[in-house]
């Protein structure tokens, strides 16, 4: 790691296979296997709106519409875009909104890894969580995005093999066809529940699709590509892999009531199927797949948080920093946030309850400013800051104070409407950003 670009973007040398696999592995975490299969087991296809369909659509859209545009701006982090397009204050506000969700997300993954390790060994859960944190913090801090991408490629491959083995074995040992047919009812095969209105449907799709479209972890992989064509193709292929692999836990979840009826916890479906159908050797492969899904997500979250703080907050405060200094501060930030994530992971209930809320909190304004900033030139720092603030505030009030059912959808409408109104009262974008700053 000779430079900050080496550490944070793997030297911008990633090819299509590596880009595609690291995007897939980063997004396809343990919740994509365990959580999605459980939700589909309990609710049918409505449980799969986020995983695999919503997130696969999100990655597709990044590849089709935005990957090339982002790569051509010569960014190091997503916060650089806010500085280029809206100024320094909006850059720092963007960092404030993007860092906490990454830390909380990493904490949840460390906790999940600790539980998997504890269940398959004699270690106590607390010791397992600490061991999990040390492993991930070490290789992420040492190797940066290159270590992340290489491990993602290996872990993603193990994940695909593990799920495929379980899927094939179960498909060749299906129960009576009548039992299978009985669980494939029109209600379970619909993306809309009978008592659900269309606002709820739209809200359910908007969180995984819109809330994650400009997630910093996804944008970083696009920026690490060796050229804009690679960024575009890699993201598009990653979306295809995500959808194809996601079909396996989706199918097992749909068939779950026929395979293992009356489970108390739907999220037990995949581990229970593995215990029921797989011999010891194949079960080890499946357990490795779960660990791989966890590791490939947590390292990306820690690196993203460290990159945003070191590159966009600490380094600009230094006087003529060398590349070695930049790498040193980035590593220190990764280690620091890894320790914070470990401490959060010790409080299991609070972490799991906050994961979805952290993903939604603030992302309405992030999405609005990215889309509007990339597609048109009107609107300056005030427009962007107000839009991001309204998106954050409206979600917080609607979700936590009023407890409104469609809080995220309403926060998205509020952020987008405020940007569309205020951009007509601010000078065009060129009046705020000097041309020379675009090359930063």
**What is the CATH topology classification name of the largest domain?**
Sodium/glucose cotransporter
State the major sheet. none
As a percent range, the share of helical residues equals over 70%
| Shape designation | globular
What is the fourth-level CATH superfamily of the largest domain?
Sodium/glucose cotransporter
Residue stretches low in confidence (pLDDT < 50, at least 5 long) are: 435-440
Q: How would you classify the helix and strand content by structural class?
A: mainly alpha
End-to-end CA span: 21 Å
CA radius of gyration: 22 Å
What is the overall number of helices? 18
Question: What's the domain count?
Answer: 2
What is the arithmetic mean of pLDDT? 87
What does this structure look like?
By secondary structure, this protein is mostly helical. It has helices spanning 4-9, 16-27, 30-43, 49-71, 78-86, 88-119, 125-171, 177-183, 198-213, 216-223, 228-259, 269-277, 280-314, 323-345, 348-360, 363-375, 381-401, 407-422. It contains 18 helices and no strands. It starts with a helix and ends in an 18-residue tail after the last helix.
Question: What's the structural blueprint in terms of helices and strands?
Answer:
Elements: H1 4-9, H2 16-27, H3 30-43, H4 49-71, H5 78-86, H6 88-119, H7 125-171, H8 177-183, H9 198-213, H10 216-223, H11 228-259, H12 269-277, H13 280-314, H14 323-345, H15 348-360, H16 363-375, H17 381-401, H18 407-422
Helix pairs in contact: 2-7, 2-10, 2-11, 2-13, 3-11, 4-9, 4-10, 4-11, 5-6, 6-7, 6-13, 6-14, 6-15, 6-17, 7-11, 7-13, 7-14, 8-11, 9-16, 13-14, 16-17, 16-18, 17-18
């Amino acid at each position: 790691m000779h430079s900050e670009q080496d550490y944070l973007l793997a030297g911008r040398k990633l090819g299509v296979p590596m880009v595609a696999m690291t995007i897939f592995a980063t997004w396809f975490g343990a919740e994509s296997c365990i959580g999605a299969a459980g939700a589909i087991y309990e609710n049918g296809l409505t449980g799969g709106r986020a995983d695999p369909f919503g997130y696969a659509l999100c990655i597709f859209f990044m590849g089709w519409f935005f990957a090339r545009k982002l790569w051509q701006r010569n960014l190091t982090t997503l916060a650089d875009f806010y500085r280029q397009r809206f100024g320094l204050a909006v850059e720092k506000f963007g960092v404030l909104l993007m860092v906490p969700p990454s830390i909380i997300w990493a904490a949840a993954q460390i906790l999940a890894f600790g539980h998997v390790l504890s269940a398959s060994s004699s270690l106590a859960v607390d010791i397992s969580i600490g061991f999990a944190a040390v492993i991930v913090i070490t290789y992420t801090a040492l190797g940066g995005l290159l270590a992340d991408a290489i491990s993602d490629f290996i872990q993603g491959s193990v994940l695909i093999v593990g799920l495929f083995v379980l899927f094939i074995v179960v498909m060749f040992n299906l129960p009576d066809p009548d039992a299978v047919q009985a669980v494939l009812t029109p209600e379970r095969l619909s993306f809309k529940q009978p008592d659900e209105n269309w606002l709820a449907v739209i809200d359910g799709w908007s969180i995984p699709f819109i809330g994650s479209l400009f997630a910093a972890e996804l944008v970083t992989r696009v920026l690490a590509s060796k050229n804009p064509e690679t960024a575009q193709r890699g993201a598009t292929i990653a979306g295809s892999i995500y959808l194809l692999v996601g079909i396996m836990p989706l199918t097992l979840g749909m068939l779950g009531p026929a395979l293992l009826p009356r489970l108390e916890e739907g999220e037990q479906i995949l581990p229970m199927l593995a215990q029921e159908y797989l011999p010891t050797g194949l079960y080890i492969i499946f357990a490795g797949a779960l660990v791989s899904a966890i590791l490939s997500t947590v390292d990306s979250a820690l690196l993203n948080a460290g990159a945003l703080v070191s590159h966009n907050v600490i380094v600009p405060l230094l006087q003529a920093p060398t590349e070695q200094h930049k790498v040193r501060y980035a590593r220190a930030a990764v280690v620091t946030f890894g320790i914070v994530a470990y401490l959060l992971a010790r409080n299991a209930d609070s972490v799991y309850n906050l994961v979805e809320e952290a993903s939604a909190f603030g992302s309405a304004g992030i999405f609005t400013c990215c889309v509007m900033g990339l597609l048109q030139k009107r609107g300056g720092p005030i427009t962007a800051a107000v839009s991001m603030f309204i998106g954050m505030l409206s979600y917080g009030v609607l979700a936590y104070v009023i407890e409104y059912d469609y809080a995220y959808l309403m926060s998205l409408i509020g952020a987008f409407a405020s940007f569309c109104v205020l951009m007509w009262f601010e000078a065009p974008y060129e009046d705020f950003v000097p041309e020379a700053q675009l090359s930063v």
